Prior knowledge:
Keywords: Membrane, Transmembrane, Transmembrane helix
Shape: elongated
Largest sheet: 2 strands, antiparallel
Strand content: under 5%
Strand order of the largest sheet: 1-2
Order of helices and strands: HEEHEEHHHH
Number of strands: 4
Distance between the termini: 46 Å
Transmembrane segments: 51-69, 96-117, 148-166, 172-191
Amino acid sequence: MKIRKKELQTTKILMIKRQLDINQNPQQMQVSPDQPITTIPTRPSLLKIEIFIELCTLILFIYTCYEFFFEYQKLPSTIDIDFGSRSSFKQVNKQYLIIILVGAILLQILISSLQLFTHKFKYRVAINSKNCHLVFRYKRQFLSFEKLITMGLFMYDTISIFKIIQKQWQPLALYLSALFILPYIICWIIYNKMINQLVKKETK
């Protein structure tokens, strides 16, 4: 009787431990207490569209770096800047322009890192072996588009700033970069719509 009681206690402890593991690791799933925990694939294979987006982002990044250094070498050490009557900047050391490039690099690294940990995000749909590849892939694609838009924004801002410094463009051109909020919103709406479709399928 004591042995039986000890076995039940051990089984109960193991079940609690497994449940804690499941709560802490969304990439793991247990169908029933009698079955072992199965690992959910957290990194679905890349689709062609994802590879294309990453290549486009890389091309924009290379072009932005090239444009930056090509124009940067032409500038004097101190630059006269006119971003309009509301701007407090009139003169600036050209080294401060490097912040643009550093910001672009850091954001690309940050978003790329997030793409590797899509399984760590919280989702409105319960993750299981049937929908995991879709949920994680949708999140990764959303981040890919966000990265592409961000790189496009930095490219436009880089070109705008140098053109304004050279008196070729009006300061208004830089303020037009605010329009980049539109593709961000569109991507967010599309992503939410795709997740909502998964939620509806799970609730049926």
